[in-house]
Amino acid sequence: MAATSSSPNRFYLLIGGLAVVGALVLYFLSRQGHSPTIPVAVAVTAGDTAGFRGYLLGSADAPVEIMEFADYQCPACEKFEMVEFPYVLERLINTGRVRYVYRDFPLDQPHKWARLAAHAAACANDQGKFWEVHGGIYATQTEWSFSSRAGNQFREIAGKQGLDLDSYDECMGSLRYAGRLQGSLDEGLRMGVNSTPTFVIGGGLYLGVLPYDRIKALVDSLSPLP
After folding, report:
1. DSSP character at residue 67
2. pTM of the prediction?
3. Average model confidence (pLDDT) for the chain?
4. Which of 197, 226, 205, 209 is nearest to 63 (CA)?
């Protein structure tokens, strides 16, 4: 009888053990499943960059273009985005004086999440939400930069901005924009960019965080107000 009564105990122990293993697997997947590795130094095809030269904000007919090469995990880029850019947006972009172009320049060392963040924003662009997710990623930089689950956090940002997450997940899993990201980095290097943020204004390269007043002075010199 003793042998017979022990069989159910072993059965329930086995079931319990499998449940624990399953829970651990689900926990691991929930933390890692949305953090694919974006390839570095991939071959860039013509299709990766055709018709694309950055994310535009403002009127395409504005007299002055500001192009920013930036890295989502760069603290200086976050500082510009949160402190100076709101003035640029309100006083230069929204007034029609500037067309603003954002370009990716991921510094893979030491910024291991830079490409993933850029790819998340690119996937958001598919649904017309680039600037919303872009802003959300920068606003939470200190939260995800040292996280093991940055991809999950980018997905949460996408969800909060109203993206269809099934489409977002498909885009992220396909690594659809790996070539575009590499192409943007390569173009920046050809132009002389080697740090972030770097701004291209009127053909000149300006390194580091540019205060709004400095940007306005440059814009005024290129297109004086009447």
Report:
1. E
2. 0.84
3. 89
4. 226
